[in-house]
Design a protein that fits this description.
Its cofactor is Mg(2+). This protein has 160 residues and is of the alpha+beta class. It has nine helices and four strands; from the N terminus they run αβααβααβααβαα. Bound molecules: inosine-5'-diphosphate (IDP). The site of inosine-5'-diphosphate has 8 residues, from loops.
């Protein structure tokens, strides 16, 4: 028998999730946030911003040598994005499952990209792909004081 307090030990994993400019322009913010909330994850950071090109380049630095890099960076800094940090058990891996494959046409129906996207370059959302990426991306987009520490009473009903 585990009390809710005991159960929180594994629930602190964090992922950086971003609704890209296409997702914002297509009014998908609420639908996307709703999926993470309904899954049982906790929103601990959120902001709307038009990323500077430098920030977009830093975010996608692993793709700097790829032919699509400039297009990708220009697109990300072309409009408002919603940058978020979500917390919960296995949130990194599970978010990637919720998001779907990089190519929306290869994403299963029911995933965010599978339900909302068509094209590679307009695939609606970003989610960290590993613990290392999550830590790097959260530090890049958020100051530590922008991340809220609070208890969600609902968690006692989400986690055993
Ligand atoms: P991910 O977003 O699923 O983690 P990554 O391989 O990290 O995929 O690529 C970052 C973003 O770059 C993708 O979300 C997509 O928008 C874009 N991208 C990736 N590969 C291609 C490509 O081959 N052509 C055009 N855009 C691409």
């Amino acid at each position: 028998f585990a009390t809710p307090a005991m159960a929180t030990a594994n629930n602190k994993e964090r992922s950086f999730i971003m609704i890209k400019p296409d997702g914002v322009q297509r009014s998908l913010i609420a639908d996307i946030i709703k999926r993470f909330e309904q899954k049982g994850y906790k929103l601990i950071g959120i902001k709307v911003l038009v990323p500077a090109k430098q920030l977009a380049e830093a975010h996608y630095e692993e793709h700097a040598q790829r032919p699509f890099f400039q297009k990708l960076v220009s697109f990300l800094s072309s409009g408002a994005v919603v940058a978020m940090v979500w917390e919960g058990q296995e949130v990194i891996k599970f978010s990637r499952n919720m998001i779907g494959a990089t190519n929306p046409l290869a994403s299963a129906p029911g995933t965010i990209r599978g339900d909302f996207g068509v094209d590679f370059g307009h695939n609606v959302i970003h989610g960290s792909d590993s613990l290392t990426s999550a830590e790097r991306e959260i530090a890049l987009w958020f100051k530590s004081e922008e991340l809220a520490q609070y208890d969600l009473t609902m968690q006692a009903w989400t986690y055993e």
